[in-house]
Amino acid sequence: MSQGPPDLQSQLDVLAKAGPEGVVPAVDLILSEADWCGASDIHFQPSAWALEVRFRIDGVLRPAVTLPHDLAPNVVGRLKVMAELLTYRRDVPQEGSIRATGATAVDRRVSTFPTVHGENAVVRVFNPSAGHLSLGQLGLPTAVLSTLEGLLQERSGAVFLTGPSGSGKTTTIYACLRRLATDGDGRHIVTIEDPVERVLEGVSQSHARPGTEFDFARGLRSLLRQDPEVIMVGEVRDRETAAVAIEAALTGHLLFSTLHAGSACGVIGRLLEMGVEPYLLTGGVRGILNQRLLRRLCDACKQPEGDAWRAGGCGKCGGTGYQGRLLVAELLTPDAEFRRAVLRKADADELELVARQCGWVTIRDTAATAVAAGQTTSTEVDRVLGPPTGTRSTTPAKP
Predict the structure, then answer these.
(1) According to a count of CB atoms within 10 Å of the terminal CB, is the N or C end of the chain lower?
(2) Which residue blocks in the chain are alpha helix, DSSP H?
């Protein structure tokens, strides 16, 4: 019936026979199995015939188990109870959190969404250990790490992080804030987040609520009167937040934030689209970090293929050929030539060309290095970054 773990499926089949009475232990089993597998997300997706459960492991959704379709409302209802959502409202999307306690507790964010077959539910898992990684433990390329550590010494300016959801941006920002909070410099560090994912010692954290009187823009304006030296804004989503963030960066504050763009150079274009003037960007932006997580080849079964390696498949990696993930990144620090290109509103392609002419190493370059080192495959790089454009390739060059 399922392509997932046979032991778990057989246990759930037994519980399913008990009807609604078996739902609570069934949900507990699924959540425990997801934690054991290291899943970042758990998908509960009803179809016309069954409730399909899938785990996102190493960035890829994998079938886990299935349950009878008639139990789907009960399963989603149980998740709603755990997240303190309205169980009787099945016609609107809802969001909530399952807060756990204890040293190794795992926090989960629950999102429900009505569909023609019933409610979808997605549970995002927040690994407590990931929130405590140091900068050195992130696995950033050596040159990127060195430059980022230099940016942490700045007293003003904005450092933006970009990348898709689940690419580790928050983990990286938290590592930066933790470094700043423990370097003995005594700087006042404050954050505005949605939500606060991890509590950081020595950092004043607040939870913004978009759509209310305490959104990112209004919260940031008020925060500037709290005598901050380092500010983290969870995300720049709109014109007003962008304007206030750059204003803060230009008035003696070191600011960190995230912004959705396809590349480091693309962040400049997004800020221009939000109405930030080019001369403000050239003065305010200190660095832009673009990062992705690639699946790491399983050392137990990877196989040589020409000048690189290919994925095999064994019991250790669940037959996928990959185990764990590695971080690849590009860090752009604008120089004089790049700033001149920004002032004339050059597009992302031209900005990248200017940066590369000055020796900038792109994320695809660092990914190619990882392929050559046997850490991942060009197939995985293209899956995450998309096919290479022009003449660039992630296939390592022959000596």
Answers:
(1) C
(2) 6-17, 23-37, 72-82, 142-151, 169-182, 216-223, 239-250, 264-273, 278-284, 336-343, 348-357, 363-372, 378-385
Residue 99's region, left for phi above 0, alpha for psi from -120 to 50, else beta, is beta
Q: If you ran DSSP here, which 8-state letter would residue 21 be given?
A: G
Contact residues for 349 (Cβ-Cβ < 8 A; gap 6+): 265
The tens digit of pLDDT for each residue in 159-204 reads: 999 999 999 999 999 999 999 999 878 999 999 998 888 889 999 9
Helices and strands (H, E) in the chain, number of each type: 13, 15
119 with 211, same domain: the answer is no
Same domain, yes or no, for 103 and 158? no
Q: Phi/psi of residue 70, each to 5°? A: -70, -10
What domain range is 114 assigned to?
6-126
Question: Residue 397 — very low, low, confident or very high, per pLDDT cuts 50/70/90?
Answer: very low
Question: What is the C-alpha separation between 182 and 185, in angstroms, rounded?
Answer: 8
The reply to whether 121 falls in a domain is: yes
C-beta neighbour count of 154 within 10 angstroms: 14
Same-domain check for residues 91 and 151: no
Query: Which of 126, 147, 179 is the last residue before a domain boundary?
Result: 126
Domain end residue (candidates: 126, 158, 179): 126
Residues 227, 324: one domain? yes
pTM for this structure?
0.88
Within 13 Å and on the Cβ side, how many CA atoms surround 88? 0
DSSP, collapsed to helix, strand or coil, labels residue 51 as strand
Residue 305 main-chain phi, psi, to 5 deg: -145, 100
Characterize 172-199 residue by residue with b for buried, 16 or more Cβ atoms within 10 angstroms of its Cβ, and e for exposed. Answer: bbbbbbbebbeeeeeeebbbbbbeebbe
Residues 331, 189, single domain; the answer is: yes
Q: Confidence band (pLDDT; 50, 70, 90) for 7?
A: confident
Backbone angles phi, psi at 61, to 5 degrees: -75, 130
Closest C-alpha to 72, from 28, 19, 133, 10:
19
Is residue 289 domain-shared with residue 358, that is, in the same domain?
yes
The domain total for the chain is: 2
